[in-house]
# Entry
Amino acid sequence: MTEENNNAFKTYMCLICGFIYDEEAGWPDEGLAPGTRWEDVPVNWVCPECDARKEDFELVEI
# Structure
């Protein structure tokens, strides 16, 4: 894997409802600025669609 790929933004999907969190876009409505990495999302953050917890999300390749 190249360094460029290591720095690429990733996406995570809620396993409960299918909501996609895109690091590049963030989720400004929930206080997550564009570019917020998944590891920087607060542990108590919940899915804006179904209130699932952060651990209910999985990395997805889009």
Observations:
- The CA atoms of residues 44 and 53 lie 7 Å apart.
